[in-house]
Specification:
four-stranded antiparallel beta sheet, 1 helix
Amino acid sequence: TFVRRKIADFHNYPYSVKQFVPTLKGTKGIRSFPYIVMDYDSRINTLHVVYGSYEKWNDSLHTAVLYYVKTTDAGISWSKPYPVGFQVDSSSLQTDRFMPWVSIDEEKGDVHILYYSSQDDPKNLKCAAYLTIIHAEGPVTHTKLSDSSFNPLKITDYSLNPVLGDYIGSAIRGTTFAYTWTEGPREFADG
């Protein structure tokens, strides 16, 4: 609750808890938040947090976005929110980013943020798994991990409702790392 209240201070979240919260990829799509994930670096007493929000860019463009913050003093103060996936200009954030996972490499101090993004689909429908690494020495790198984009609405439960699920995660230690995520079925041509 403490982290949720502090994060609410960063943005004017446009919906109350009791109001309808939009879904991604249409009215019967997948949920876009709340997402709050964190990992603690015990070497330097730092809590790293990634959380989801919803940005209204204009009357017709709304997207799920992710932000990274950290605290070194038990939440008394927080770093400025950094938009996950930001590359050069804010238009790169105008596609959905959602379902994050954060892992800290306590040997190197790098922050690994795994998430889904629709940044390669101009229609903002298909998505893929991406990795942002905030390196301890300063630079930030972005990598597409999926070998192809997929339509998350095609991953369904037995009632055919879209259920991508929160099946995403990572573990890191030095030069050993593991990333896991869900991908939808590939589209194959008949014949």
